[in-house]
Design goal:
Low-confidence stretches: none
Distance between the termini: 14 Å
Number of strands: 0
Mean pLDDT: 88
């Protein structure tokens, strides 16, 4: 349910930057499987910026909420090109999708 809604509204473009399935390839950004509960910059096999490694937070709904508002403000020096989502509902829907898609 979340996947269709999120994609329909253009909130997530997996084909461009990330994959979410277990064992998925890294693209411009890392594979996001197992994202929830993982420390920034710690996904295996992806070259993260030092800023991402040094942030030292754990990805949960609350940290994703802040990050998805403005990634470059939350982690200055990140190479994330995504500008962020200004609408809280969009962020909430994307977080719900990521929680579901990256753990199944």
């Amino acid at each position: 349910r979340h996947r269709k809604e999120v994609r329909k509204r253009g909130l997530y473009h997996e084909e461009l930057c990330h994959t979410v399935e277990a064992g998925g390839k890294h693209k411009q950004g890392p594979n996001l499987h197992g994202l929830i509960g993982r420390k920034t910059g710690s996904g295996v096999g992806f070259t993260y910026t030092q800023a991402n490694k040094d942030k030292g937070i754990t990805w949960e709904a609350d940290t994703l909420e802040i990050y998805l508002t403005n990634p470059k403000k939350y982690i200055p020096g990140t190479k994330m090109v995504f500008a962020g989502l200004k609408k809280k509902k969009d962020r909430s829907d994307l977080i719900a999708y990521l929680k579901q898609a990256t753990t199944s």
